[in-house]
Amino acid sequence: VIEIPGYTDREKLEIARRYLVKRQFKEHGLKNGQCKFESAALQRIINDYTREAGVRELERQVAAVCRHVAARIARGELTEFTVTSDEVEKILGPAKYIRETKLATGRPGVVTGLAWTPTGGDILHIEALRYPGKGNILLTGQIGDVMKESAQAALSLVKSRAKDLGIPDDAFKDADIHIHVPAGAVPKDGPSAGVAMFTAIASLFSGRVVRADVAMTGEITLRGLVLPIGGLKEKTLAALRAGVKTVLIPKLNEKDLADLPAEVKEKLEIKTVETVDAVLAAALKNGC
User: Fold this and answer.
1) What gap in Å lies between CA 52 and CA 6, rounded to an integer?
2) Does 235 lie in the same domain as 264?
3) Which residues are catalytic?
4) What's the pLDDT band for 99 if we cut at 50, 70, 90?
């Protein structure tokens, strides 16, 4: 199987402007000057009506708009039309997709992780909660077996470093932990959420707030090392779309930075980390 990386939003916009719109004008018999797409309208179609790595669905939605315009011109209702962002919603209806955005405020136990998906990349808000119990851990949010193992490893690692993190030795004995990854309809698996789960648990028990503008990805070991992950381009693009400012990635993925789009490297601060200690130093607020 040959995997082809997805397009960035900027690339999709250029493809739509240069090729897709012109092709659909021709398909629907629209002449020059009869219809015009504003860039904001195309961007709204990309954001609210498609979720894909390529541009197939984008062309379908552009075609739907062109059909609407062509029909109105044929009925004599208008002679020319400019498709604006507001007109897109009137023609295509309510948004089909709502993208996750960065956290509004930071709080202990809540971390922004990054995930690879067949449609590109997405962010995951990983939430950890504790309550009186017997030291059990509950995992919800349609989490796969590998991600469950990452959560167990994260908990063991936090327990082994409790003293260094300022967590009382008996903090885990009488408390159960619930880790939830929202968007329960979307299956999630893989080891790359390990650093996010470790940070969520460490933040929860230490009471230190996680920075809201930081997202992270990486597998962890029981020695506290951060191992490399796949899908870096898609994950960083997801962070950029969500408004995240800083992304923590494994040091061993440094070689992949050259493959990231210029837009990502310009707008994101990408920090490489080798250990979970470096992750906490970058992600947790001091004195909180």
Assistant:
1) 8
2) yes
3) 192, 235
4) confident
